[in-house]
Q: What sequence folds into this?
């Protein structure tokens, strides 16, 4: 359908000029003109696993809703693979949307469709694969998140954690080079959560996939995160950016050190 | 409310010094005593606070998670009057409780109070916005429809067929019942007045004309608004609340093409058929009354044939299709514009049904005048 569609193999080896997968400059995002986060400068490198953290309600999901092109920021510039998406026309946005996969905080599986159909949908819309191949691809993606045997169930027939995993499988459907995950491990047991970490690392190593992951899961952040970006709701800013362990031990910001070492706010 | 009988009631000492006001509860500060303590404090708090309010909990007995409400109250009072607040005389545990409770409690400036005039203003604005929205939405619909003409593969055929079954086939029983009854009711109500003029058989004319031109399409459309307009709003609205619409958009899939088009096409295709069916049963219902008065089916039908014109039949079909267009567009639009939160879907559903029925009646009067003018 769309000949400009990136295939995993050719975008993994993009020219050095586009080593930055996502670039934000002076970005403010909010609702009804009132900013929730302000003046964010952030460069996410191709092939990195970046975690975004911060207190509940500080604007992580809001930030992601601008990165995924749905919510135009109040001001600033956002580039994905070097393509400006702020103020871009529909055609540009469509082509950018093909480059990333996204898992929503609530899963957002399509009700009334089986898990298999959920994962197949992007394939139907964007590829010329025949039906049998689509099924195979979709089943493989479900298998990766441990849902192979549940492929023919509806979202309402599986647990919350399973829905999250199915949503991750759907985000992987088109083998995108960038994957946004909004709290993928919330609600997962430790073993499943560790399996998910292993999947992320494997994809990251094998295909150079960039991951931008919102998570409160400190174990995951320290285990697989290359860098950690921290938002602060009160200051509405990005208050820290760097390797997680380094920030925990040496961040000049007390709130960041607390967050990463799980110290309650009442303790002084 | 007062403390339980066995415990002595909690008293409060309030002292005012140049440094500020000191509030010192003596006794328990719990869910049982809070209301009394709070109203005592409110009553006795001096008008001039000075630079600070100090809450001293050294002499208080039990303090529970509700009792901490006093600290919140004093904190908010202090902040709203430009004073500072400190809480002293607390153990480490209580300190944690108080600190946690005070987070984010700064008084906010609330919007203007609501009054009747304001409410009416807001409501009219909402109707205006819906109308403007509908116009804009029509543009979007036309655009997507044109795209589909050039790229029919984009239409979800299976979804369209499913919608036709759900909103057409499944509506047959209720539409049949209402059609039959309305026909009978009209015949019943007109039989006496017409028989005064010796025009008993002409009841068939009244039934046929009013049902085929007017009531068949109307009741079908109203059932569509209640069954399908609401369902469209609820289905699409739920998808909005659960971020499914966002998910579609990030896949580059336009919800109008993906969700709205199948539903609207289904509604516009099945409603005229349902309307014809309702009209047929309505005419049959009318015979029930005449049959009871001894007229034969042949007599009745030949009279019906005289009354019915091709124009009247076409008018009914066109009305049904236009009503379906309006109801389904309004239902889908209400769904797409669903707000946040658990109550939002309910609001959208109500809006879909009410706006849908209002639109049907408005359109019916406009179309009625139109067909009259062009002489059909
Ligand atoms: N639709 C909306 N309209 C207005 N304000 C909103 C809306 N959605 C979120 N907000 C506000 O934006 C802020 C950030 O919300 P967001 O969902 O981005 O938080 P978050 O960091 O993802 O929190 P959590 O970790 O709990 O998911 C919150 O203060 C919230 O009140
Ligand atoms: Mg969130």
A:
């Amino acid at each position: 359908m769309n000949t400009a569609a990136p295939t995993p193999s050719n975008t993994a080896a993009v020219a050095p000029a586009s080593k930055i997968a996502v670039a934000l400059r002076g970005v403010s995002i909010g609702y009804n003109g009132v900013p929730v986060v302000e003046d964010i400068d952030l460069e996410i490198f191709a092939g990195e696993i970046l975690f975004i953290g911060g207190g509940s309600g500080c604007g992580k999901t809001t930030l992601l809703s601008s990165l995924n092109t749905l919510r135009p920021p109040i001001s600033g510039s956002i580039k994905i693979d070097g393509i400006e998406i702020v103020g871009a026309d529909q055609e540009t946005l469509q082509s950018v949307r093909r480059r990333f996969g996204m898992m929503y905080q609530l899963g957002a599986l399509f009700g009334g469709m089986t898990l298999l159909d959920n994962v197949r949908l992007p394939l139907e819309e964007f590829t010329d694969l025949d039906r049998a191949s689509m099924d195979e691809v979709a089943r493989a993606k479900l298998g990766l998140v441990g849902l192979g045997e549940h492929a023919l169930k509806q979202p309402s027939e599986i647990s919350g954690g399973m829905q999250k995993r199915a949503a991750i499988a759907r985000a992987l459907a088109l083998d995108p080079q960038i994957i946004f995950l909004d709290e993928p491990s919330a609600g997962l047991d430790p073993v499943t959560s560790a399996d998910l970490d292993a999947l992320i690392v494997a994809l990251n190593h094998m295909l150079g996939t960039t991951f931008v992951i919102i998570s409160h899961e400190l174990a995951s952040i320290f285990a697989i995160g290359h860098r950690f970006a921290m938002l602060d709701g009160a200051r509405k800013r990005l208050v820290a950016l760097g390797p997680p362990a380094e920030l925990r031990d040496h961040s000049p910001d007390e709130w960041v050190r607390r967050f990463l070492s799980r110290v309650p706010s009442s303790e002084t | 409310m007062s403390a339980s009988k066995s415990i002595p009631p909690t008293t409060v000492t309030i002292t005012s010094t140049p440094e500020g006001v000191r509030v010192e509860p003596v006794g328990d500060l719990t869910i049982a005593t809070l209301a009394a303590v709070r109203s005592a404090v409110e009553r006795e708090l001096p008008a001039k606070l000075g630079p600070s309010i100090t809450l001293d909990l050294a002499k208080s007995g039990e303090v529970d998670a509700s009792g901490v409400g006093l600290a919140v109250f004093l904190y908010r009072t202090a902040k709203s009057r430009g004073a500072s607040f400190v809480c002293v005389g607390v153990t480490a545990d209580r300190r944690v409780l108080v600190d946690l409770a005070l987070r984010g409690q700064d008084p906010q400036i609330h919007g203007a109070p609501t009054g009747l005039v304001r409410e009416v203003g807001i409501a009219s604005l909402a109707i205006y916005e819906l109308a403007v929205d509908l116009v804009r939405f029509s543009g979007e619909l036309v655009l997507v429809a044109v795209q589909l003409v050039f790229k029919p593969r984009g239409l979800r055929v299976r979804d369209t067929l499913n919608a036709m079954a759900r909103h057409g086939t499944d509506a047959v029983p209720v539409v049949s019942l209402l059609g039959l009854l309305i026909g009978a009711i009209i015949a019943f109500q007109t039989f006496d007045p017409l028989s005064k003029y010796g025009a008993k058989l002409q009841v068939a004319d009244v039934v046929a004309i009013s049902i085929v031109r007017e009531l068949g399409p109307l009741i079908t459309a109203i059932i569509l608004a209640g069954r399908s307009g609401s369902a469209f709003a609820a289905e699409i609205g739920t998808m909005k609340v659960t971020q499914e619409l966002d998910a579609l958009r990030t896949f580059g899939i336009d919800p109008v093409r993906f969700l709205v088009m199948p539903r609207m096409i289904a509604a516009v295709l099945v409603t005229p058929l349902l309307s014809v069916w309702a009209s047929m049963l309505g005419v049959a219902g009318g015979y029930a009354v005449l049959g009871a008065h001894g007229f034969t089916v042949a007599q009745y039908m030949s009279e019906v044939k005289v009354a019915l014109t091709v124009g009247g039949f076409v008018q009914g079909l066109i009305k049904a299709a236009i009503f379906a267009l309006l109801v389904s567009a309004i239902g889908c639009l209400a769904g797409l514009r669903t707000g946040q939160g658990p109550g939002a879907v309910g609001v959208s559903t109500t809006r879909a049904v009410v706006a849908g029925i209002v639109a049907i009646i408005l359109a019916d009067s406009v179309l009625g005048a139109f067909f009259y003018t062009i002489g059909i």
Observations:
- The two ends of chain B are 74 Å apart (CA to CA).
